[in-house]
């Protein structure tokens, strides 16, 4: 548990004891052991945290919850801490933290039934906004040293998948992806769900429109692939499913994104996780980035009407990515983003169809078969 007494730390009983719930300390301990925990272990951790908190307050101690200062913490960086001392000013935060902990213990965790963060927000009318609810949920996960899905709380589903794959949940519910796209729902990513596939690869597509084009062109049959889209910025369920497929079947995973800073940011989210989530290491994948690149636009002579100038916001996103440690560690990806800034242009995946109808499908096949990825 990330809980300890300030007096014990100081070794001096004259020093006022303090209960410290160190969310930041969880970063050093989270590993594969804490990725998937049985509900009994999670309940035990919640009870231990609640008992320690109550005992400190009963003894006249000052309760402190240290939270991650996400505004100053980038992806893969050491998280800075912001102390939340129990006082009249921070009473709302402590109340929200404990209410969230109690609700999860008595509802989704007790019944072992998934709920969405949206449901959690509406079930607890103490949060001012959904984002405030998500922040408290992250702090709860950090204090318990577990990934969020262990609390039976997931984001609202939005990702789609199709391919030679089937799943059977513990309650007998079947999901078959062979004939038409299926929404990626919480039960699919649970560790008790049996997954079967004969697919040879996973292909991630940034946008639903291009995904639909691939489905209508039967790319999943042609390539013996599982096609997945997060419809833009991917939710945790989509990223967790991709990670699970890699862990279970070691499938090579390819990614296709727009040639613009937002596309590069979405690629980085799949590959390196989200900056706003301390447990994002459980929602990453080994991604082979197949485009779209500046060299592709020149090689296939994409028309000027399909190439746009970068906006001020585009340039800001690109510069932020170049300062991201995960991006900086990859010379090839950094070069792609630098090219965007240097050339000052961007283009969508749909521009490939200017070459000829459905060329985007042949583009993906060519890239994968020739090994053109970074």
TrEMBL record:
GO terms for molecular function: ATP binding; DNA binding; DNA topoisomerase type II (double strand cut, ATP-hydrolyzing) activity; metal ion binding. It catalyses: ATP-dependent breakage, passage and rejoining of double-stranded DNA. Its cofactor is Mg(2+). Residues 95-152 form the Spo11/DNA topoisomerase VI subunit A N-terminal domain. Keywords: DNA-binding, Isomerase, Magnesium, Metal-binding, Mitochondrion, Topoisomerase. InterPro entries: Spo11/TopoVI_A (IPR002815), Spo11/TopoVI_A_N (IPR013049), Spo11/TopoVI_A_sf (IPR036078), TOPRIM_Topo6A/Spo11 (IPR034136), WH-like_DNA-bd_sf (IPR036388). One of its GO terms (biological process) is reciprocal meiotic recombination. Residues 201-363 form the Topoisomerase 6 subunit A/Spo11 TOPRIM domain. It comes from the Eukaryota. Its EC number is 5.6.2.2. GO terms for cellular component: nuclear chromosome. Belongs to the TOP6A family. This is DNA topoisomerase (ATP-hydrolyzing). It comes from Plasmodiophora brassicae (Clubroot disease agent).
């Amino acid at each position: 548990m990330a809980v300890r007494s300030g007096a014990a730390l100081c070794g001096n009983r004259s020093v006022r004891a303090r209960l410290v719930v160190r969310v930041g300390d969880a970063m050093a301990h989270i590993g594969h052991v804490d990725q998937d925990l049985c509900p009994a272990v999670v309940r035990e951790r919640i009870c231990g945290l609640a008992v320690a908190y109550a005992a400190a307050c009963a003894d006249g101690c000052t309760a402190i919850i240290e939270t991650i200062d996400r505004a100053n913490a980038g992806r893969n960086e050491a998280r800075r801490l912001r102390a939340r001392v129990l006082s009249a000013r921070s009473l709302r935060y402590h109340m929200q933290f404990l209410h969230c902990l109690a609700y999860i213990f008595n509802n989704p965790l007790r019944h072992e039934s998934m709920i969405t963060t949206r449901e959690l927000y509406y079930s607890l009318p103490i949060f001012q906004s959904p984002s405030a609810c998500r922040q408290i949920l992250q702090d709860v996960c950090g204090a318990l040293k577990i990934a969020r899905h262990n609390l039976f709380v997931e984001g609202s589903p939005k990702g789609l998948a199709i391919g030679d794959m089937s799943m059977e949940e513990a309650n007998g519910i079947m999901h078959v992806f062979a004939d038409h796209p299926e929404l990626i729902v919480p039960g699919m990513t649970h560790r008790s769900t049996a997954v079967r596939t004969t697919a040879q690869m996973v292909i991630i597509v940034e946008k639903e429109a291009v995904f639909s084009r691939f489905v209508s062109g039967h790319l999943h049959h042609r390539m013996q692939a599982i096609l997945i889209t997060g419809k833009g910025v991917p939710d945790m369920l989509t990223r967790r499913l991709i990670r699970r497929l890699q862990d279970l079947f070691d499938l090579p995973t390819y990614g296709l994104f727009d040639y613009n800073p937002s596309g590069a940011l979405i690629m980085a989210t799949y590959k390196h996780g989200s900056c706003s989530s301390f447990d994002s290491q459980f929602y990453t994948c080994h991604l082979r980035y197949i485009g779209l690149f500046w060299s592709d636009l020149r090689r296939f002579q994409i028309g000027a009407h399909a190439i746009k100038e970068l906006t001020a916001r585009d340039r800001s996103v690109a510069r932020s990515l170049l300062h991201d440690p995960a991006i900086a560690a990859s010379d090839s990806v950094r070069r792609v983003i630098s090219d965007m800034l240097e050339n000052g242009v961007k283009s969508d995946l749909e521009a490939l169809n200017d070459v000829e109808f459905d060329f985007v499908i042949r583009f993906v096949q060519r890239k994968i078969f020739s090994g053109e990825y970074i």
